[in-house]
Structure formats: C-alpha cells, structure tokens
Amino acid sequence: MKFNIALLAGDGIGPEVINEAVKVSDAIAKKFNHEINWMPALTGACAIDAVGVPYPDETHEICMKADAVLFGAIGHPKYDNDPKATVRPEQGLLLMRKKLGLFANVRPTFTFPSLIDNSPLKKERIEGTDLIFLRELTGGIYFGEKGRKDDGETAYDTCTYTRAEVQRLAKKGFELAMTRTKKLCCVDKANVMETSRLWRETVQAMERDYPEVTVSYEFVDAVAMRLVQWPNSYDVLITENLFGDILTDEASVISGSMGLMPSASVGEHTSLYEPIHGSYPQATGLNIANPLATVLSAAMMFEDAFGLKAEAAAIRAVVNKSLEQGIVTEDLAAKDSKTYKTSEVGDWLVANL
Amino acid sequence: MKFNIALLAGDGIGPEVINEAVKVSDAIAKKFNHEINWMPALTGACAIDAVGVPYPDETHEICMKADAVLFGAIGHPKYDNDPKATVRPEQGLLLMRKKLGLFANVRPTFTFPSLIDNSPLKKERIEGTDLIFLRELTGGIYFGEKGRKDDGETAYDTCTYTRAEVQRLAKKGFELAMTRTKKLCCVDKANVMETSRLWRETVQAMERDYPEVTVSYEFVDAVAMRLVQWPNSYDVLITENLFGDILTDEASVISGSMGLMPSASVGEHTSLYEPIHGSYPQATGLNIANPLATVLSAAMMFEDAFGLKAEAAAIRAVVNKSLEQGIVTEDLAAKDSKTYKTSEVGDWLVANL
Ligand SMILES: CC(C)[C@H](C(=O)O)[C@@H](O)C(=O)O
Ligand SMILES: CC(C)[C@H](C(=O)O)[C@@H](O)C(=O)O
C-alpha cells in the first residue's frame, strides 16, 4: 500500500522524537512492502517564527491531503506566562483540531510490566490498569464565545455542546466498549452544569442501542479521586473537552509510563497521532528525549488509520523488547545502568524489527 | 466566651458524625469555660422531604445569626442519576454558599504518620505533604447563566469572573502563604480560557504587594499530574471554583487519610466548617462512619472562627492519640484488630480530652 503522511514535528524535542518514529515507520514499510510519502509541514512556535502564525494554511492543506498526520509536540517558553500574548503556539493546536474536525481524542493508559515500579502508585493499585479515555476535542469551553466586559474587569467563557456532538463522541465510546469489556463510564458534572445534563441524557438515550454495554455515570470530581485509588476499575471513559484535558493528564502519570503513552485524535477528514508528552524545551537538541511514545503513536496510526494490525504489532513487539533489554533513554534507565541517546534507541528498534 | 453555632447535620451519615463533633465540642467548651448554643437547622434531602426546598429560609436565618456553621454532609441516592430532577439537595449547598457569601473554600491535605500506609501512593511520594487549596466557591461556571437553545438540542454554561472576585480570593492566598513557606501556586488554564487570563493577570499584579511570596503559575492539567507525582512540592494553591472541585478531591485521596480531612468555607457573614467526605448513604444509621473529619472541622472552627488555638490544639491532640492507640472506625482499623463504632470513638475522645 501507499500512504501520504503529514509530518508535523513541531517544537522543542518534537523533531528529535519524530525523527525516530519516521525511521521505524520506514523500516516497517520496507519490511511489509508499503510506500510512505512523508509530507513535512510547520506548526507551533517554529511556524510563528517562520510565517507569523502557528497553523499556516499550507500546513492545513497538507494535512487535508494526507492519509494521516504524525505530530511531535508544540510549545516554547518564550510564549508562556504572558497572558496578553496575541499569538501563541497552542492556538495552532486548537485551530488544527477545529479545522481538521479532530473530535475524539483517544488516550489509552496502560502499564508496562517492566516499568511498573516507576509509578508513584503502589504496585497493587496499578497492576492490570488498561483504560481508554475518549475526550471530546472540538467543542466545549475551548471553542465557545469568550471575552471581557466592564472595561476588562469581567471575563467570561462559554461552554456549549449540541446533542449531535455528544452523540458522535458517545457512539465511538459505545463501539470501543463493545470491543473490550463492555464497560463505559460517562464523566460529567450533571449536578451543576447544563451541558453535563445534556451529555448524561444523550448517553442515557443511547444505552438502548447497545444493550450489552454497562454504562456508569460519575461526576468528574469523583473520577479524579478514583483514578488515583483504583485506576484498574475503569475501562472506557467518555467525557467533554476540559474534563478530558485534566483527567487524561492525571491518568497519564499513574502508570509510571507517561513518557511512553501514545494518543490519537480521530477526525472527520483525517486522523492525527501524537505522543502525549509536551515539547520539553529544556531537552531540545540534546538527543536525550524518549522517542517511544511517538514510535507507539506511529503503531496506533498503522493499526487505526491504515488497518494494518501486523505492522502495529511488530512495532509494539520491538518496543517491548527494547524495554526488556534496557535499551532506553535516561528517563527510564535503572540506576547506574547504561543509557542510550534518542537516536540510538531508534537505531536499535530499526535493527531489531 | 459564648458562641452560637448553627448545626446543619444534613443527610446520610451527617447526623451521626455531627453528633460526635458536638460531644467533643461541648467537652472542650466545658474544659475551657465556654458556652455553646447549638442551633439545629435542616438542609439537603431531609429539608426537601420536610419543607420542599433544600436550603429553607429559616435555615438561612439561623446561619446568618450564628458565629459559625458546623455542617455534616448532604445528598441522597433518590436524587441521583436523574438529570431532569427539578429539586436537588446540591442546589441547597450552592444556594447556601451564595447566600452566605462563602467565597473561599479552605481545603488542607496533610498526612498522619500512623495512616501513611493507607495511601495509594508510595510512602516516599507522600511523606511531608502539607498543602492547602483555596478554592473560589461563589463564582465561575457554578453560578453563571446556563440553559438550552434550539429546542433543547444545545446546552450552555457560562463561566464568569470579575477582577474583584479574583482579588478577594487571591488576597487570602497571599496572606496564608505568608504564614507558611511563602510559596503560592495559581492554578488556571490561561492558554485557553479568558477567565483564567483574568485570574493570572490579577494575581500577577498583586505580587508586588507581597514581595516575599514566590508565585508560580501552572495549568490545571499539569497540576492534576504533579499532585500525584510530587504532592509535597506544593504549599498554598489558589484556583477557581470548578478546577478547585476537581483538584481538591484528587488531592484528598493522595494522603490516605481522606476520611479525616476537614475543611472550612470562609464567608462574608459567617464561616462554615465541614468534613470533605460525602453523605455515604449506604452507611446511614449503622454507627460505623468515621467521625474524625467532622471533629477536626470543629477544631478548625475553634481556631479560625473563634481564635481559640489551645482548644483546637487539644482536639487535634486527642484525635492523634486515638489514631495512635487504634481507637478507630472500621475504615481505618488494621486487619484483624478491634474496630470501634462512631459513637464509641466520640466517647473515647471526650473521655481522653
Ligand atoms: C496546549 C493546550 C491548549 C492543550 C489542551 O488543553 O487541549 C493540551 O493541554 C492538550 O491536552 O493537548
Ligand atoms: C455537590 C456538588 C455540587 C459540590 C460541588 O461541586 O461544589 C461538591 O462536589 C463539593 O465539592 O462540595
């Protein structure tokens, strides 16, 4: 098969980790007789520096033409802590999500047996954790009307959801639950928010179409607690944009494998695959960043965007092998053991595929 | 001294835990020569059952006359999971917060050495944790305009903040930081929300009035992560209502002492003291609920509302003694050791004051 993949390396360590994912993807393509046409494009701080906007039209066109988008990370400290900055890298991210219609952010949290001791949680709490959040990504307070009144003394943000938006996301949740343990948790704040009440009543009405799925409804504050107490009690969780932002990040640290977590953003036009970690500016150019989350995001891309299960399995297998053999960057290395550079890990993966 | 204390026992286990806090408070009053006039009043599901509304006017009048309010818990399962219920116990809570002007919810998270092994987190992660959230409690999306459009197909909630609201809460945060390690963390989502940008710029402008305080600004998603990774890296945190709801609950489970955490809601007219746990309906009437969070809330009341430090210290000392000696309810009891009833714990505290 032949694929066009938009390659958005972004800022900070983005280009370094993307580089390794490209090496591994090319090796897989060669092995399985596929052809990949990489289409690099600018986004984030590097796009602001180059052309003044964080998600240029040319980049959008490339993404729209692509069969999938592979994304690194964006963000640069020079744009932080300035509430009045008018152009920010994050705006590029939001614009991209909206323009590509990336409505469902798929965020798995699972454990690697060899890394379980890295977790801040006790082993017995975290063992067997294998959950997936579906975060709504193009609605809610992120995209509602916002602004100032009273000479800037009053600020407001609006959270809006339509029934159709909830249905679209919830449908993915029910379908995913059907392929797993048939447990679905709808996370909301229906005791306070009207949008949450719309979420809850919409999901309740969909239950009859999926009689095998057991649905629970939990408040976001309760989920924030139980994620730390009993993460392995969850399977598929669906939630709105802002709750998803907070809870998926919370979930990412419980496994001890945060540096390895991939994600997908499923869209109307195309889908995007990216590591969940940020641009880690302090490490830029040092060749020390862990590339595995990006490599595993490429595996998700092969499986979900192209339907190539064997290719994805081959990538996951070689990643597991590298972990078992300790071919890891400094963040994962056991005390006093050898650490490998970003590019060395990538080379090892390619050689051992 | 003589105090009028409004006593809002509420629902579920509320009356049982309140009962023990009253016993301990009365014993303290006797010992230190104070006089307490308890003024019981209805709130929550029991108020709906009795008079049709969850925060009756009579209750409000009693609270307004009181020097402090001691609160149990509210909520009853018959009102849950019904997004269309028109009267809900939680509405009483929100109305009470608004009418009493309870703008700052003070939520400490600390560890009890004897309970540290109950934490889902590893000991080395949690040791030394001693943080306080100040959650804004009368603004934000809880109280903004909300409703439906398009025949109910679109729902919206509005989050609003004024500069004055932010200043009032932040002032408390700076003042509290001055009495502790002079570290203040402002939690927001300034990369997305206009209200967060107002929060950040308002707090930034106040920094010059407190030159000794080191202020950090962190995004809510990052805080949700770091609370699990390094809770002891925080001291005082200030945040808006909804973020505070999620993060304070998350923080409450990390110490392993969730059943013991007290809280205060500081108001314009009077202040309210309550355990952070809920109404735990399944345990109602069984005399098994842990009364210590409510007893420690009474200690906060003696110290903060009445300025009586010795009285508060005496309560905390006897609570520590009960923990050390294992005079605890079943939730805290070591395996195979004797457990005590709610009222037995209270009796023991009174006898050992
Ligand atoms: C950078 C920021 C706008 C973004 C978000 O809040 O969605 C990020 O935290 C994420 O989760 O991808
Ligand atoms: C019951 C609910 C409305 C309330 C809130 O969200 O404020 C509760 O979760 C709390 O934190 O006191």
UniProtKB/TrEMBL annotation, chains A, B:
Isopropylmalate dehydrogenase-like domain residues: 4-349
Compartments, record wording: Cytoplasm
Gene Ontology molecular-function annotations: 3-isopropylmalate dehydrogenase activity
Keyword S-adenosyl-L-methionine: no
Co-factor binding comment: Binds 1 Mg(2+) or Mn(2+) ion per subunit.
Primary site of residence: cytoplasm
Pfam families xrefs: Iso_dh (PF00180)
UniProt catalytic activity: (2R,3S)-3-isopropylmalate + NAD(+) = 4-methyl-2-oxopentanoate + CO2 + NADH
Pathway: Amino-acid biosynthesis; L-leucine biosynthesis; L-leucine from 3-methyl-2-oxobutanoate: step 3/4
Site positions for Important for catalysis: 142, 189
Binding-site positions, substrate: 97, 107, 135, 221
Binding site for Mg(2+): 221, 245, 249
EC number: 1.1.1.85
Gene3D superfamilies, A to Z: Isopropylmalate Dehydrogenase
Domain of life of the organism encoding this protein: Bacteria
UniProt cross-references to InterPro entries, sorted A to Z: IsoCit/isopropylmalate_DH_CS, IsoPropMal-DH-like_dom, Isopropylmalate_DH
Necessary cofactors: Mn(2+); Mg(2+)
Subunit: Homodimer.
Functional description taken from the UniProt entry: Catalyzes the oxidation of 3-carboxy-2-hydroxy-4-methylpentanoate (3-isopropylmalate) to 3-carboxy-4-methyl-2-oxopentanoate. The product decarboxylates to 4-methyl-2 oxopentanoate.
Family: Belongs to the isocitrate and isopropylmalate dehydrogenases family. LeuB type 1 subfamily.
Protein name as it appears in the record: 3-isopropylmalate dehydrogenase
Gene name tied to this protein: leuB
